[in-house]
Records
---
Amino acid sequence: MSKREDYITWDEYFIGVALLSGKRSKDPATQVGACIVNPLNKIVGTGYNGLPIGCNDDEFPWQKKGDFLDTKYPYVCHAELNAILNNIGIGLQGCKIYTALFPCNECTKAIIQAGITEVIYLSDKHAAKDSFIASRKMLEKAGVSIRKVKVQREQVILSFNEKDV
Ligand SMILES: O=c1ccn([C@H]2C[C@H](O)[C@@H](COP(=O)(O)O)O2)c(=O)[nH]1
Ligand SMILES: [Zn+2]
């Protein structure tokens, strides 16, 4: 029997882990996941957008509009920052980060300061917004490579039915 040929690529695997991490998010509007990978292709951190430890998901607001303090924006810790903070306890110099959404300016600062040298994203839907223009500018100045993830398929389906294993 010859080897299986339709296995997923490294890019598909790591962006898949980022997307799966995002499925943990309680944000009703936007679920973002991120996955940090070291130069040996080992996963060293994952994260999703969520409230800080100790802040109850049911007590804080999730809305987008209204007074600033009544929205999710001051409270949610972004996926990329969580992935950095959740790392397995190593330096992240030379690592790459896979993220569902191109990182905002705040996450970008953390990415650069952590020593991450490549950002691989799936969606750049906010590219025209100031925060994301600032991100690109900082990443380019800091010499961090940026690229859209390369995928060879539209989707990967996961089954939790034991009969499918
Ligand atoms: O770099 C980023 C930018 C945003 N997020 C999170 C933060 C929020 O939970 C949502 C954005 O909210 P909208 O519904 O698009 O207004 O995405 C992130 O994790 N990383
Ligand atoms: Zn961010």
---
Amino acid sequence: MINPSWRRVVLKVGSALIAPENQGCSELYLRPIAEFIRQCRLQGLEVILVSSGSVAAGRHHFNFQHQRVPIALKRAMAAVGQSQMMNFWSRCFDFPCAQVLLTHGDLSDRVRHINIRNTLRRLLDHQILPIVNENDTIATDEIKVGDNDNLAAMVATVANADALIICSDVDGLYTADPNKDANASLIAEVRKIDQHIYGLAGGASSKVGTGGMRTKIEAAEKATAQGIDTLIIDGHKAEAFQCILAGKNPGTIFYGQARPLPAKKHWVRHTLRAKGEIWVDDGCVEALCQQGASLLCSGIVDIQGEFDSGDAVLVRCASGKRKIAKGVSRFSASELFSIKGHHSSDIASCLGYCPAGSNAVIHRSEMMLLERI
Ligand SMILES: Nc1ncnc2c1ncn2[C@@H]1O[C@H](COP(=O)(O)OP(=O)(O)O)[C@@H](O)[C@H]1O
Ligand SMILES: N[C@@H](CCC(=O)OP(=O)(O)O)C(=O)O
């Protein structure tokens, strides 16, 4: 292994490897990937597979020629393709596989999030291979992750993995899309993911891929923030897997951060979606950014959107409109309209009741700063 300290690995396999001809599942690339999984397990690694391909595997059952598939048809394709894909994977192994279908709604609900973690641990404890995909048959825009690169990063985080390996149809991250620019060169190592790195990424070029390189960089950003090394490799090439087993890097490695975010803060920053915004004054911005304070109602000048207590929100500077932080609001939008600008000691008289716990609107432990001033 590239890093001998890896104990648990999430392997993400894209649709182009599952159904390369868009004509149902093919064993062509699945066999070498399955052999890699077997070798990893023999070396004592725990493996979780995140497999795309339900839509691509089911597509040929429907006589539909256009590139853009309506969502209702996609759900039907996923329903038939998912079971065929599971069948294919199961036939590749002499140990049991478990199907785990998730949506973003599951990962962003704290109780379901913990259930997912516990289930994955139980499966791994019993040497069963978890095979995860988005639950495409029921997913709506509101509850879906939308691409399996980000899903795999969330799975790696919830499972406390040491490494995320994304098997794509290119060797790794290039200086430009290698399918469009013949001069593009492979970047072997990335230590910091910034706007320059995002600027290199183009969209998907295959007929079945979702997201292209951008979603892979997003996934790497999520995973590395939790200390998880992230690797992009070409899953078509059996040599790429041999390289990893021999301790070499065949693609691009994004190194996990040495000081990972605490799990709750990581979940707030990288899994929860903001349902609304709280706009605050300059004094509040300084208290949050310079003094490490919790957000109190006295600094709030406006509220945008509808949200409940427990929902994630963005905190924005009312004067400059900059995003300052993301966190979990302990009050709903309508409660905040009644208490904004007031001192915390006025909350009970403004609302007519006393909220449980502290008076902080967003407690420091549930807030992530998005920029420093
Ligand atoms: N900077 C880049 N480096 C490598 N590939 C890139 C880059 N920008 C865009 N791409 C495209 O991203 C594609 C891989 O993403 P995608 O088609 O979504 O595949 P997958 O099924 O593996 O998720 C590549 O085939 C390539 O055309
Ligand atoms: N969940 C979808 C795959 C979504 C996706 O991200 O696909 P890909 O870019 O091929 O990894 C499916 O199984 O068809």
